[in-house]
């Protein structure tokens, strides 16, 4: 096993997520001297117990208790979605100022991840729509793009409406920008 605390915590987190049966062996190797190490231990333990919500919430409670005095947020925001959802569930049962602020930050984090990754996953662009989106970057008029694809002007307009709707944009330039942002271009 690796020697540095951060690498060890990461390695254990990966092992825990892959193998539910070997959790206790990996978790026992985590150091718990500093506050950060204790937080990592509790969050990784909660991740390991996601199939047992009461146990997982107990670990979340321990982590919250540890982090309340220091106001830690980043460690929670860097967790994966299932653990963030568990934290939100925990927050509804245990309201206080710190937990509500943390839950709001986690909610925003989940929303932004969904917006940046979920748009295309929910409504993927067709092959033709991707082709049209790529050709929008050339700056050619729509009529020339339609002619080069051997389709009518009305057909390309329909494809463009679908592209704009799926990317949640309203112009050619914003469609190209969003396509680059989502690594479609």
Question: Could you describe the 3D structure shown?
Answer:
Residues 118-183 form the HTH luxR-type domain. Keywords: DNA-binding, Transcription, Transcription regulation. GO terms for molecular function: DNA binding. InterPro entries: Sig_transdc_resp-reg_C-effctor, Tscrpt_reg_LuxR_C, WH-like_DNA-bd_sf. It holds the Pfam family GerE. The structure is a single chain. The protein has 185 residues and is an all-alpha fold. The chain folds into 2 domains: 5-118; 123-181, Orthogonal Bundle (Arc Repressor Mutant, subunit A). Helix content is 73%, strand content 0%. The protein is built from 11 helices and no strands. The longest helix is centred in the middle third of the chain and has 26 residues, at 97-122. The protein is elongated and about 65 Å long. The model has no long low-confidence stretch (mean pLDDT 82).
